[in-house]
Every structure is written in C-alpha cells, then in structure tokens.
Amino acid sequence: MTLVDVINVPQVSDPQLSPDGRQVLFVRSDANWKANRRISHIWRIDATGTGLIRLTSGPDGESSPRWSPDGHTIAFIAKRATEPEAAAQVWLIANAGGEARALTSHPTAVSNLIWSPDGGAIYFRAPDAKSDERKAREKAKDDVIVFDEDFQQQHVWKVAVATKKETRITEGAYSVLSYNLSNDGTKIAMHRAPSPLMGDIEQSEVWVSGSDGQDAVAITHNHVQESDASLSPDNTQLLFLSQANKAYEPYFNRKIFTVPASGGPAQLLMPDLTYEVDHAEWSKDGKSIYFLANMGVHAELFSVPARGGKPEQLTSGKHSLTGWTYSPVTNAHIYTELQMTSPGEVWIDPASGGSAPHKVTSVFDNLTRDFRLPKQERIEWKGADGVTVEGLIYYPLDYTPGQRYPLAVQTHGGPQASDKFGFGGSQNYVAVLAAKGYAVLQPNYRGSTGYGDPFVRDMVGHYFQNAHLDVMAGVDELI
C-alpha cells in the first residue's frame, strides 16, 4: 500500500440496528480529493448482509442516522443550505426511500439526536444563538475575542415531528455536555458543566430531570469528569462512568458507578477490574450491565450483574471492537470489528447467546485481494523494573527470520490510551511502512490504559519514570 491507497480506504462508523432487527444503518466516509476532505454518507443494509444501498448523497455529507421507534423513518444530521454560515440541521427520510426533508431550522448546529419513544418528537443538543452584539461585530470583521470567553452555552431542545415546533428543554448559565433519554421517555440523565470549555469538564456533574427539563436534581457532587449517564429500565437506578476511584480521586482507569436515580451514595462496580471501561449500557431487564472494555491491545464486550459481581467476557479475538451499542428492543449488540485486514466491518451479536456473532457488511473485502498487508502480532517484554509491558509488532513484507530490518516505533498519545489490533490509517500507516521494509512497534508503555490502575498511575508525580524506559526495552527486545 501507498499513502494514497491508505487515504482511499473507506471508514465505517455509527452502526444502528433497526427496531425489528432486520436492517442496519451505518455511516461510510470516503476520501474526496476535489473537496480535499472525507465526506460521509448514510447507507442501509439488511442484517443478512444483502440489499446494500446508499440513502443520502448531499455534497457536504450526512451523519448520525437514527431509526424512528416504528422503523419507518430515519433522522440524520446534515448541512444542506448554500450559505457558508448555515448550521447543520435535523433531516428526515423515509426508510422506503424518497427525498429527505428538513425538520429543524435551528440558528445553531444540532447534535445528539434521540427519538422520543412514541416517535412524535426528536430531542437534540445545540449551542445557544449568538447575541446581536456578536453578530454585528462579526459582520464588521471585528473578530478580536477574549480567550476562553468566546463560547455559547449548549442546551437540550426537542422538535415535534408533525409540526416542526421546537421547544427548549434546558436553559441557564451552564452547558449540557451530553444526555440520554430514559426508555419510557419521561426522564433525562445529563452531564452539566459551568461551560462547554475543556477547563470546566472536571466541574461537570450528573443530573436527572423530567423529559421537559423540570425538577432537575444533581446526582453527583465531586470534582471528576463523568460520562455515559443513563437510567435503568425502571428509572430507579442510574449508571455513569468516571476515571476515578471510590473516593472520586482522579486519574484511574475508567470505571462503572451506579447510584439511585433520586440521589444518594454511588456504588463503584468492579473496583478491582484490571481493564478500562469505554462504554456501558443497561440490559433489557436492568439486572445486568453490558460494557465495552479496553483490555490493552484489544477491546471486548462484557456483562456484569447490576448489583456487582464477577464480569463475564462475551467476545474474544485478535480484534478491537468500536462503535458498540446495545438494542434492548431486539436484545442484540451491534459494533464494528477492527482487524489488520479490516478497518471495521459491522457485526451483530445476539445478547441471548442463541447464535454466534455474524458479519453484516463487506466494505473491506478488496483489501486482502488487492494489497499485501503486514502480519500483526501481540508481544510482551519486561520493563527496566521487571514489570511486564505489552505491545504490537507489524512485520515488514517478505520478512525472513534472522535478517536485520529497520524499526519504526509509533507511540500513542494520551498517555491514557492504548494501541490495539486494527488496520491503522492515514496517521498510523503501518501498511505503508511494512511495504517499504520496516518493522513497526507500537508499545503500550506505562501510563497506558487497560492494564490496571498502578500501570496507568505510574506517571502520577513523575512523568518520565518508566514510560520512556518501557519503549526502549521493547526496542531492545525486538533487536
């Protein structure tokens, strides 16, 4: 592969299973060399892997497809106005086909679409409109701003599908960073912060309100960032994630907390879990919690009793799962599975366990047919202090044991992250380096997530104690 080949490889994301479990929506982005960027469109395919069609084709692309509860309509986000300053809006298209129609005409860009359970409305999040004073300044080209004061608060709205009437749900001197609607549509779990600025994220807290925004109650009172707040099916419990321990001290692997939806002390589930939790959702009956775990060089699905207990691993392989969601209506998981030979096909995995996971899309079947790709392996070695360190090695094409090869080392950012099995991309072009005769090492050095709290916290108070030595020990191991 060349760099151009790598850039031309499509990307698949955001798979959504239809309410009847028979169809899948996903977003596919492709390189558009004339526009000098990737452009995304929404595709639909039958769960059997047949009947693939592209549903949208706007020049600026589309994102965030979401099924209506009856499966007849698809909502998505797109910017389709000709004005340069036009904001992305909510659009609707019939699953049976036809032209899309705009549902919102909001003054700012919308995000986080969630259908109400009856299909009569769609909730969304959007920044507040610019003040008249700011609009006048921008029109006059007076674009001097005060750093960290140039923002609009972000709030939740809903729009009626039949009338297009928009209703504000939240309002005030705070921002809703993310939110979830309860299964019955009567409550909202949200993350509220003083502003949308990065510096205020740690001041965010979990709140619960009615679906009209009334009777809002703060559930957490700490100084760590939370995410993924969602209500149990019976609305009595709430789960959230945080990179904290039981005492809400920061800088740990991300963990699952549960708390009464009316407020009270939170319970830390699986305090001794070695891995990091990337995402979590309630099971259909609320007795279990499914979660996606970062296990270092791979990511897998797990289940754990909602009251606590031993987690059960549901998937396993030389892969990394991303874009996972659980559909309680169909009782099935849907995700993309990354491998060295695939940047992520869509898979469906029945939660009942009655049948095996099956691949739905075949977007990347041409890669192994058209290109020679490197062999990818997990390796481990000892750090300078004897601690086991893990990573990935990619062999050069035509590798011959015993022959010397140049080595490229790619270290992930963060450092709270980890390199996993997968194809790579335009910023992680292992297939190109291997084609040019290089071996590539991706080390998950001290400070990486997915290997336990002592491993990730090794950098606290002494950033350069072991991380760089772990990398060099990996290089020495390969030599």
Structure commentary:
The protein is mostly beta strands and 479 residues long. Helices cover 9% and strands 40% of the residues. It has helices spanning 3-8, 132-139, 365-370, 430-435, 453-456, 467-478, and strands at residues 11-17, 23-32, 37-46, 53-54, 62-67, 73-78, 89-94, 101-102, 111-115, 121-127, 154-160, 166-168, 175-181, 187-193, 205-210, 217-218, 226-231, 237-244, 250-260, 267-268, 276-282, 288-294, 299-305, 312-313, 320-327, 332-339, 342-350, 358-359, 376-382, 388-394, 407-409, 439-444. The protein has a four-stranded antiparallel beta sheet, with no helix packed on it. It has a four-stranded antiparallel beta sheet with strand order 5-6-7-8, with no helix packed on it. It has a four-stranded antiparallel beta sheet with strand order 9-10-11-12, with no helix packed on it. The longest helix is centred in the last third of the chain and has 12 residues, at 467-478. The chain is globular and about 70 Å long. The chain starts with a helix and ends with a helix. 41% of the residues are buried. The mean pLDDT is 95.
Helix share, percent:
under 10%
Main sheet attributes: strand count, strand direction, barrel closure: 4 strands, antiparallel
Average pLDDT value? 95
Rg result: 23 Å
Structural class: mainly beta
N-to-C terminal Cα separation, in Å?
Answer: 26 Å
- The quaternary organization reads as single chain
Count, helices: 6
Unreliable sequence segments: none
Task: Categorize the overall geometry.
Answer: globular
Number of strands: 32
